[in-house]
Specification:
Blueprint lengths: L2 H15 L2 H8 L5 H20 L6 H27 L2 H8 L2 H12 L6 H18 L8 H23 L6 H23 L8 H28 L2 H4 L5 H13 L6 H25 L2
Helix pairs in contact: 1-10, 1-12, 2-10, 3-4, 3-9, 3-10, 4-8, 4-9, 5-7, 5-8, 6-7, 6-8, 7-13, 9-10
Length: 286
């Protein structure tokens, strides 16, 4: 399969992740972040496990728990803390450092070189996301900032370890193991720290189903599949497509304003994503 097709399929994941905010605010009951995260991961993991019928064994049980914690439990927990304590634009901008963190971790764990073009693309992505999301929002909170930073580092480490620990099973099975582990780790926190869910309406059921099937099973299968076929340094900049998707959905479905400065940010993010791919191709040449 061609590299361009792999990139396109992988890019579908962050594009769909951009709809998470819209679905959460419009279709889910409010005030249940851990429960929503658990219901996004656990049913999706169970469904994929039923389809693949392959359980982890030996060292892969431990690795699945580590990856489930980094990519789902810890990442989503910190993400919700940041969302509650920071304006959305600030949280998104801090989270945009993830491609830079992945570059450094790839150098440390995978012995991959860090090029100047890749660093430039990383900083350009941060600036582009800031232009897209920082619309008059500069309120800062130390705990929120640390949570946003910790979430970016958590998923960056999980992304690199997904590439380093390639299992002897399909990407679908590997995704099932991580979603199941992440959901199980979130389950006690959701039960202990949050009240029971209210009676589910049709909108609530649609929202949870969408997040589980599309925001969980499909997107993370595409994401982990992309990491297995491409370098993490190539895949991670694609995550910057998520805020672009969120802004366009808000503009189309919620009639939110789209300013000229945001369009500039969108153009800069797209250029940074292209530059990131170009830098990886250039580094791979003899």
């Amino acid at each position: 399969m061609s590299r361009n097709l792999d990139l396109t399929l992988t890019a579908l994941a962050p594009t769909l992740w951009g709809s998470t905010y819209l679905v959460t605010t419009e279709l889910l009951p409010q005030g249940y972040p851990l429960t929503a995260a658990m219901l996004r991961a656990l049913p999706a993991g169970v469904l994929l496990l039923i389809l693949t019928r392959k359980l982890p064994g030996g060292i892969w049980i431990v690795r699945s728990l580590i990856l489930g914690a980094l990519n789902f439990s810890l990442f989503w927990w910190l993400l919700f803390i940041a969302a509650y304590r920071l304006p959305g634009g600030v949280a998104a901008t801090v989270g945009a450092i993830q491609p830079l963190v992945v570059l450094l971790l790839c150098r440390a764990l995978l012995d991959q070189p860090v090029t100047r073009l890749a660093l430039l693309a990383g900083f350009g992505g941060i600036l582009g996301v800031a232009l897209i999301t920082l619309v008059g929002e500069l309120s800062l909170d130390r705990i929120g900032l640390l949570a946003a930073l910790g979430g970016a580092v958590s998923m960056a480490l999980g992304t690199v370890l997904v590439r380093k620990w390639q299992p002897p099973v399909s990407a679908l099975s590997f995704t099932a193991w991580q979603l199941l582990a992440g959901g199980l780790l979130l389950l006690p926190a959701a039960l202990w720290l949050e009240p029971p869910l209210p009676v589910m309406s049709t909108e609530h059921l649609i929202g949870f189903s969408y997040l589980g099937l599309f925001g969980g099973a499909l997107t993370y299968f595409l994401w982990f599949r992309g990491i297995a076929r491409l370098n993490p340094s190539t895949v991670t900049p694609l995550a910057l497509l998520s805020p672009i998707s969120a802004v366009f959905l808000g503009w189309i479905l919620l009639q939110q304003n789209l300013h000229a400065i945001q369009m500039t940010g969108i153009a800069l993010v797209l250029f940074s994503v292209w530059l990131g791919q170009h830098s990886q191709l250039k580094a791979a040449r003899p």
